[in-house]
Amino acid sequence: MMDVTVANFEEEVIAASMTIPVLIDFWAPWCGPCKSLGPILEKVEVAYEGRFKLVKIDSDQEQQLGAAFGIRSIPTCILLVGGKPVDGFQGALPEGKVKEFLDKHLPPAEEPEEELALEAVTPEAALAKLKAAVANDPTNESARFELVKALLLGGDTDAAKVAFAPVIAQTKTVRRFDSLQRMFDATDFVAGSAHNTGARAGFDAKIALNKRDFEARFDKARWHMAHHEWTAALDELLDILMRDKTWGEDKARKTYIAVLDIMEAPKPKVADGQIPPDDPVVATYRRRLSSVILS
Questions:
Q1: What is the tens place of the pLDDT at every residue in 255-286?
Q2: Domains observed in the chain
Q3: CA nearest 157: which of 114, 200, 191, 123?
Q4: Which of 5, 26, 80, 234 could cross-link with 17 by S-S, CB 3.0 to 4.6 Å?
Q5: pTM for the whole thing?
């Protein structure tokens, strides 16, 4: 649990929610129901072992944040995913109802097999363990994501598509599967003969003529994605977002998040109570995205 103010809201809430759901508890020291709900939320956060992040905002001290979320009574809890509010509740719910609320939105708890898969020493062993994890539990979203990603980045696109096929219908409901689809789109885009020889020079020429040629910038970003030039892809997408946050029905922002998902390595195991460190490059680009969204 963390206390959040205007000063650290962008980093601890918006940026954090790009990779893990963040539950905001709006409360006040004088609020009786808040005092009963707070310990329940903290207990659930511990029980869920990192499946979401809990933050607390004192609505008296941080009235600007309360107004931004339209808070009219406390306690009020708001759940953010991908930088946006997705659901919320008011009042001091019992523990069972809090869990019921969270379970509608949080990814399932990871299985031990997945942790073993992510800790493998060699790429070959890691791939074998991921395949075994998916075979043992086809519903294991995290293991399947890592398997498809490993196959894609290893250049085995056909095998990646086969591994992805059973969950392709879930791209609208599972963000990381959507990220994989966007990576496939970039790979298929560049695989066309028209986008190989001289493609980058062609994109640059169009952009030089019109810096707001967002289609050219987006195509250039996909070209960088297909060549695993992650930060170059992010820079192009960020340029689009700085000029038009919702261009292309939000596809620049969603593709930006997809690149971050692909870039980020699986979290290593750490001692109980500790938080695995973020990749500094990923963290920097998350902050840049949240800065643009909030500006």
A1: 999 999 999 877 555 444 444 456 788 888 88
A2: 2-103 (3.40.30.10), 112-294 (no CATH)
A3: 191
A4: 80
A5: 0.60
Would you name the residues annotated as active-site residues?
Answer: 31, 34
Cβ neighbours of residue 45 under 8 Å, at least 6 residues apart?
1, 23, 52, 53, 54
103-123 confidence digits (pLDDT tens) = 888 877 655 444 444 444 577
**Strand partners for 80:** 22, 85
> In a 3-state reduction of DSSP, which class is residue 286?
helix
Q: Which helix (H) or strand (E) holds 3?
A: strand 2-3
Q: Which residues does 114 contact at the CB level (< 8 Å), separation at least 6?
A: 133, 140, 142, 143, 146
Which is it for strands 53-58 and 84-90: parallel, antiparallel or unpaired? unpaired
Count of CB atoms within 10 A of residue 281's CB? 14
Tokens 């339209």 locate to 70
